[in-house]
Structures are given as C-alpha cells and as structure tokens.
Amino acid sequence: MADKKKQNKKKNKNSKPRIRIKVKSYDHRVIDEALKKIIESLSRTDAKIIGPIFLPTKVKKYTVNRSSFVHESSKDQYEKRIHKRLIDIVDFSDKTLEILRGLHLPAGVDVEIKM
After folding, report:
1. Residue 88, Cα to own-chain centre: how many angstroms?
2. What's the number of domains the chain is made of?
3. What is the DSSP letter of 27?
4. What is the pTM of this model?
C-alpha cells in the first residue's frame, strides 16, 4: 500500500508541466469551430497537443406546466445539452501562452485554462 503511494509521488514529480484547456458550449458546431482555431494556432508554436478529448455531454431536463389551473396534466419538456472537450498541451513555450491569451473565439464558448 505504501509502495503505491511512493510510486504516485514519483510520477507527479517527474511529470512535465502542462496546460489543460476545457471548452464548453451548448452548440456542438460552435465548439468544434473553436477547437479548430485553438489547435491551428497552437500548431504554429510547435507545442505538443494531446486531444481534443470528448467528455460526456451533460443533459439537463426541465418540465414546466403549461397551465396553472385547469389543464395540470399538460406539460412542456425542455432539455439543455452542454458539450465539453478537453485539450492538453505539453512541451510549450512562452509564445504558446501569449497565443492562448490572445485568441478570439466565437460567442457561446466557455474556455477554462489551467496549468
């Protein structure tokens, strides 16, 4: 048991620094367009890119009564889909960070960058 913990610590010490980019959107076409822009701009800096990795789509469902009094059995159902993608960047430079900060992505895309 203690050996596994030591091995995990060794892996964490030896691991290279990386940038993790999480992209979220309600529309899958817009998120694919944003990823295309990100990967295209990062490929010019010779950074090693892992991904895009497709994460599970989160589906939120809502049920609303159509009428408040007489027709209570009639209901409308709505759903909201949140598409998510993940990109890891390894072996990056300062130029890569500058390009990430200066990206102009389409509206409706939420980008989360972690180091």
Report:
1. 10
2. 1
3. -
4. 0.70
